[in-house]
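ARCHIVE CARD
Drawer: 12
Card no.: 0347
Subject: one protein chain, sequence and derived structure
Cross-reference: see card 0346
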Amino acid sequence: MFERYLIEYCSSTLAGLKTASLFSYTGNDREMVSEYIEVWNQHLNSRGVYLELLHCSSSRALIYVYRASALEMDLSRPEAVCFLTQYGYLPGHLQDCIEHLKTRISLTNSFPHEIGLFLGYPLEDVAEFIRNQGRNCKCCGIWKVYHNEPEAKKIFAKIDKCREIYTKLFCGGRSVLQLTIAA
């Protein structure tokens, strides 16, 4: 079941189209999540893909799947560094940033809105989402778009197509490992 979630929610990250993905795992085997993450990290880390447990409750486990090199680039851009510093992050130390994100999720018991940067969303859209409290967007897809709507719609279509293809291939017998593009 965990593999199915990886394909369903993380295909664009596995394919290298997106920096990161996030999903809530609600399977009956939630107590096994730490072991699943450990096993999948053994398989995927060599391809540049990492899994982290961001938060766990009695009903779900929040799993973060990311491409370390892409995330490092995204978070090290000067404008991202300036933005994240406002929220107590120390950009330049990827694992420290992820740990701080975990802390912020635990403290608020929700998504801190800067999580959009950790998912590869455009900084302008993340900042506007926060400023507008989620209102007044131009369009809505994987994220709420406030700026480059045509480009965002192209990205949304690519991600949807990727999920469709990966699901079909997975159901046809391909493994998650076979579908993960090496960095």
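Annotation on reverse: The chain has nine helices and five strands. The longest strand covers residues 49-56.
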